[in-house]
Amino acid sequence: MSIKKILVVDDELGIRELLRDILIDEGFEIFVAESATEARELKKSKMPDLILLDIWMPDCDGITLLKEWVNEKFLTSPVVMMSGHGTIDTALEATKIGAFDFLEKPITLQKLLKTVNEALKYANNLPKIEINLLNIGKSNVIQDLKKRLDKLVSLKTPLLLIGPQGGCAKICAQYLHPKNQPWIDVKDFEVVSNAPADLLDQHRGGSIFLNEISHLTKSQQKGLNLLISKAVNYDVRIICATSKSLTQAEDVDFDKRILNELLPGSLLLPSINEHKEDIPELASSILTMHLTKSDKSDYKVFDVAALNMMRAMNWLGDIEELESFVFNLMQTSLLEKITAEDVKRVANQFNLLHDKNKSSKKSKGTHDQGLDEIFNKSLRDARDEFERMYFKHHLNNDDQSMVKLSEVSGVERTHLYRKLKQLGIKVK
Questions:
Q1: 170 to each of 122, 192, 211, 260, 271, how far by Cα in Å?
Q2: CA–CA gap between residue 34 and residue 13 (Å, rounded)
Q3: Which one of 137, 180, 284, 350 has the minimum C-beta count within 10 Å?
Q4: Which residue has the higher pLDDT, 419 or 205?
């Protein structure tokens, strides 16, 4: 059995040393911090099994730090507050926020060991942390998305989330889902056509999530229509998601009547490439999540260059691809620090797996081999070449959709056809 790790956070040297010595004698591995800043770093790097947190610290009080960890939904270990006589009420309030218990100073040996052992037992029952809306980013894009979702939380009407494949659709659906109520992410669409009434009955008061509804057959669409029409009788919210156009994609034949039911509650979701400033923090959170789930005791962390390189990359598979990428780095990096060279190595592996017709490989080749040639041309020729690359990139991404290309580029379709013809780009 691995040695349990405990983080002691207190600005008083004497208390830190006393608790450290006692707990080391009991067979625990101890880390100490005298400030919130140090505590944040040690929590992230050492992933302790338990945190003993003092209320008063010079740079940030313990209650604020506890709220920060709880609000991020990334608290991976129980927290026991430590308080003097004058802060007992505050410590009690901390247990309502999320602390496991509190210890009153001066702390007796018997009380310390009893509380520590109980907290560690409790830690075994903590739910596994997952990526959620509150830890995928703090950018304006994500804050605006959260505000829009907040306006939809109280509604019971069916919803349609429209966003990239591998993106945040399920994360948003779970954010809208009422706590402690039945939830299902429907994987087998046959149940929608064969037993829609049973599905509703089993999830009364909760949510039914159907991802990629563009894949539904005609009979499954009939089942979805029944789910939507009867959901209010069961107090169930139907949340659907798609990464394809339900009206314009050539391989989609979707019932317009169902679409009309879903469109009033539709919401366009951003891709991860629209808020790249969140990627470094998100990648670090994903790494922490996987490390806490694994049985490995070795610690991993990204260096700054590695995070900057991931931020600059184009993530065709969105959040799911980033998560797979980070997991691969965790498994295959040889050193404690994951470097830019590691990122480059895994990026080459992932690029080999992408369809050669997709834009990532084309844009990568163009970037590596074509930019120097463009810079050697006249300004006019270079501009034409860049526009040619730009339009081809988006046409490849959007399956030759001129409507989408017009929206993305800001060029009216009448002018767009003329521009593409001038650049020698053929449109199917």
A1: 29, 18, 8, 22, 13
A2: 8
A3: 180
A4: 205
∠ CA 264-268-271 to the nearest 5 degrees?
165
* Beta carbons of 212 and 224 less than 8 angstroms apart: no
Task: Say whether both 347 and 377 belong to one domain.
Answer: no
Tokens (6 digits) for 183: 């939830």
Instruction: Report if residue 131 sits inside a domain.
Output: no
CATH number at residue 366: 1.10.10
| Same-domain pairing of 348 and 300 | yes
Indicate whether this model's pTM tops 0.70: no
The verdict on 245 and 324 lying in the same domain is: no
Boundaries of domain holding 395? 359-423
How far apart are the C-alpha atoms of 92 and 80, rounded to whole Å? 11
- Whether the pLDDT of residue 393 is over 90: the answer is no
pLDDT at residue 356 tops 50: no
Quote the number of domains for the chain: 4
Q: Where are the alpha helices (DSSP H) in 247-303?
A: 256-262, 279-293
pLDDT by residue (tens digit) across 275-300?
Answer: 999 999 899 888 888 887 765 556 78
Percentage of the chain modeled with pLDDT above 90: 54
pLDDT of residue 86: 63
Tell me the average pLDDT across 51-57.
Answer: 91
Question: 124: which 2 tokens?
Answer: 């075994």
